[in-house]
Amino acid sequence: MLVQTLPDTMTKLAQMGDATIYEPAGDQPQQEHRRGAYQSRSLAECITNVSTPKGSLPIVKTMLTTACERNCYYCPFRAGRSKMKRLTFSPDELAQGFDTLQRAGQVEGMFLSSGIIKGSVTTQDKIIDTAEIVRNRYNYRGYIHLKVMPGVEYEQLYRLMQLADRVSVNLEGPTQERLDALAPKKDFQRELLSMLQLAEQIRRTHPYEKLAGTVTQFVVGAVGDTDQELLSLSNRLYRQYGLTRAYYSGFSPVIQTPFENLPATDPLREHRLYQASFLLRDYGWRVEDLPFMSDGNMQLELDPKRAWAERYLREAPIDIMKASRNQLLRIPGIGPVGADAILRARRRGRLTELSHLRQPTTVIFGRTLDATPTGTCSLTNSNHGALICGFPQRKTFQPRSDTPSCRSTTLASIKGNKFNSG
Ligand code: SF4
Predict the structure, then answer these.
(1) Ligand 1 environment, Cβ below 6 A
(2) Which of 111-125, 259-273, 399-413 has the lowest mean pLDDT?
């Protein structure tokens, strides 16, 4: 007689580690634990150090169920995929498991997603139930990131935003056409984009309530999506829907899916998308400013800020004595901190020598003097006595994280006569 024992809660949690591969959760997604697609075996594999607004925290990333009635072409949890072991928690069970882990000091937060079973609304209710038990029965006040299921109801979304620090609505593709090629049963406008619209509406309707920020995720490179499509939509989401962050997850093929033979996306493309996305979100750039090529993509070899500068700054260098803050932010090596330092130095008097920048900048940039160089920007004395930002020779680019090079190069120091990248 074959006797099969049911796995206990911790074993199930351990086996759900695959959820961690496909769901970036923190502010530095490329630093989150990445590995090949397989079913995890140890609990440690399911706990990821995630950069959150509350600092870097060990987060358990898990799912209410790895079963799903939908069949997105790229997804390991798609219906009918026999290589995926299907495991399901009840809200009680998962909340209790999380409470055990966090009381033992093993985790300081939870990222909770789910496959869809019996429709989005039913599945969303279970996610809400889990979060309510964690918050109310176990009195947990720490970090929670919850997934919004496609096309849920207004009240469900509102409740999710009350319970969580962050909620994610994964758009997956930048248009209905791209989404059709990735996830044939999803409706781009009605089920996904409208969730982000609603979230912003909820924030505006309840301005004094502490509500979760919204993020989204794109699957990049499987179905011909272009950087221009992805960044145009990201920009719209930042401007109109109050999106906190867009994640760009380079496609990686999963065996026993319709996409198993497609090539994986170059990780450098993810990196360039993050750089460009930060220029749009934090540096006041417009989509039209980004250096797209004729095929709608950006060059992989150059960071987008540098590519723009190569195109425009060589012939028309920026005079940092006169440049506005936004113009300063166009210069590779100068980010918000650097631009503000230059503006402050300018207010003290005319900048005619690099030594005039030394004091305000070195204090600010001192903590990252030894950071890896990611770009170049030199300040050279012009013939007219003002400082002009021009272009020295290029340095080799070394991608480190999703941090935009313009931010890391902002953290620069003045060494000798150079404004060296930090
Ligand atoms: S709905 Fe989500 S879990 Fe289900 S197949 Fe699609 S991406 Fe995967």
Answers:
(1) 68, 70-72, 75, 77-78, 115-116, 183
(2) 399-413
Mean pLDDT taken over the chain: 80
The pLDDT value recorded for residue 4 is 55
Distance 322 CA to ligand 1 centre (A): 52
Nearest CA to ligand 1 atom 3: 115
* Atom from ligand 1 closest to the CA of residue 68: 4
CA of 249 from ligand 1 middle (Å) equals 15
Going along the chain from its start, the domains and CATH numbers come out as 2-259 (3.20.20.70), 316-413 (no CATH)
Task: Give the 3-state DSSP-derived string for the chain, with helices as H, strands as E and coil as C.
Answer: CCCCCCCCHHHHHHHCCCHHHHCCCCCCHHHCCCCCCCCCCCHHHHEEEEEECCEEEEEEEEECECCCCCCCCCCCCCCCCCCCCCCECCHHHHHHHHHHHHHCCCCCEEEEECCCCCHHHHHHHHHHHHHHHHHHHCCCCCEEEEECCCCCCHHHHHHHHHHCCEEECCCECCCHHHHHHHCCCCCHHHHHHHHHHHHHHHHHHCCCCCCCEEEEEEEECCCCCCHHHHHHHHHHHHHHCCCCEEEEEECCCCCCCCCCCCCCCCHHHHHHHHHHHHHHHHCCCCHHHCCECCCCCECCCCCHHHHHHHHHCCCCCEECCCCCHHHHCCCCCCCHHHHHHHHHHHHHCCCCCCHHHHHHHHHHHHHHCCCCCCCCCEEEECCCCCEEEECCCCCCCCCCCCCCHHHHHHCCEEECCEEECC
In the reported structure, the alpha carbon of residue 265 is separated from the centroid of ligand 1 by a whole-number distance in angstroms of: 20
Distance (Å, whole) CA 389 – CA 317:
6
* Ligand 1 atom nearest to CA at 172: 7
- Whether the pLDDT of residue 280 is over 50: the answer is yes
Pocket test for ligand 1, best of 62, 63, 74, 77 (most atoms within 8 A of CB): 77
- Per-residue model confidence as pLDDT tens digits over 176-206: 999 999 999 899 999 999 999 999 999 999 9
Q: Is the pLDDT at 358 greater than 80, yes or no?
A: no
pLDDT, position 341? 82
Closest C-alpha residue for ligand 1 atom 6:
72
